[in-house]
Design a protein that fits this description.
Number of strands: 0
Strand content: under 5%
Structural class: mainly alpha
Helix content: 40-55%
Order of helices and strands: HHHHHHHHHH
Number of helices: 10
Distance between the termini: 15 Å
Radius of gyration: 19 Å
Length: about 210
Amino acid sequence: MKPKTKLSMSMTLTQFDNGYWYATELKEFAETIGIPSATKLRKDELEKAIKLFLGTGKIKSPTRRSLSTSGAKDVERGLSLDLPVVVYTNDKETKTFLEREAQRLAPGLKRKSGVRYRLNRWREEQLIKGVKLTYGDLVEEYIRMNQTREPFAQIPHGRYINFISDFLAAEKGATREQAMRAWEKLKALDVPKNYRSWVKSQSSKSR
């Protein structure tokens, strides 16, 4: 396989998609090309903005959510079900609060893979729409997502989450640890970061 391509303004979209980039690399590159508030963007938002630049040469903010973190964090104000969501932090204390309150309302609730990521995206979407949320609303949505029987739709930029889900569904009896090891190997390959590419890479080795 080819060595990893470096981030550059002259790289193609295919080269970008076939690579695996750490958040620190993306933020540094995004700042270099002038993407606004690059240090405050999520990894998927950085990827979206960089792909737009590589494809069109345009610089544009990839999100409509507020990037301001001024004021006291919600966790510092004391988390409770009726506390409004204002300055949310994705830290251990907040995760523990959501899990504890969910278990209290739905004893024995099992967490589905990818729920926390999707809950964060749901929260952001609601706030962008102007919906006023409380932490009680987050707990209720967390429960609903975990109790959904249908498989989650694929996330456009959640390549890791999608790969793990596809790997476990296709590789009967595989453990999450095996899926994570496969992902680590896939990251180093100059191919699209999906399960199909993983299967092809394994087939080529066996020839």
